[in-house]
Amino acid sequence: AQTVTQSQPEMSVQEAETVTLSCTYDTSESNYYLFWYKQPPSRQMILVIRQEAYKQQNATENRFSVNFQKAAKSFSLKISDSQLGDTAMYFCAFMILADMRFGAGTRLTVKP
Amino acid sequence: DTAVSQTPKYLVTQMGNDKSIKCEQNLGHDTMYWYKQDSKKFLKIMFSYNNKELIINETVPNRFSPKSPDKAHLNLHINSLELGDSAVYFCASSQDPGLSGNTIYFGEGSWLTVV
Fold first, then answer.
1. How far apart are CA A84 and CA A93, in angstroms?
2. Does A97 sit within 8 Å of B97, measured CB to CB?
3. What is the model's pLDDT at position A96?
4. pLDDT tens-digit profile of B85-112?
């Protein structure tokens, strides 16, 4: 069974600074997808970024980028120039076909 | 237009009651899901349907019964509600899981409180 681990329950960062959220996963599969979702207090699940396991190039989406290390089964999220609106729960997720599994989440607080 | 819509958004009900949560997606997706998020914010998959067929059925009490009348709808019926059923239930959808590049899109969640 696939498992996803987020070892940082809470993190904080000053506005405009950079923060990295960690995620590791365990699988014996070679073809899968990895995601970061953001959940603000409204509870809406918002896709932040997606990575295909067969692609070596790290995905980027504006201020958000990932460091995907397939051999190490690591998928960290870097948020540059943090903004107050980035305050939220961040969930790392692993997906094979229709089965998406989430980590326990990291609560990120951006301080002014 | 909301891509994945759930109703009701908030539901407070007494133990022992039966309730349903409805979900509809207008994205043309083939696969729909129900996830449960408990008070500790942990998200867990409950069910997944592809073209109205059940493909994932996690260890969920029999009191929970999903129904998919067509591929755009996936409803969740819960019998004999218990206090532990209090949670946020998310409906979601994605393209056919056999295709590459699929992403799950979530509804806004249905907050169920059992008293």
1. 24
2. yes
3. 85
4. 999 999 999 987 665 557 889 999 999 9
Question: CA–CA separation, B5 vs A98, rounded Å?
Answer: 20
* φ/ψ bin of A73: left (φ > 0), alpha (ψ from -120 to 50), beta (otherwise): left
pLDDT in tens, chain A (112 residues): 679 999 999 999 999 999 999 999 999 888 899 999 999 998 999 999 999 998 889 999 999 999 999 999 999 999 999 999 999 999 999 988 878 899 999 999 999 9
Interface test with A, best of B57, B95, B104, B113 (most A CBs within 10 A): B104
Nearest to B45 among A33, A91, A99 (CB): A99
Q: Tally the residues of chain B.
A: 115
Tokens describing residue A112: 């002014």
The torsion angles phi and psi of B23, rounded to 5 degrees, stand at -140, 140
* Bridge partner list, A111: A14
Burial class (CB in 10 A: 0-12, 13-18, 19+), B81: buried
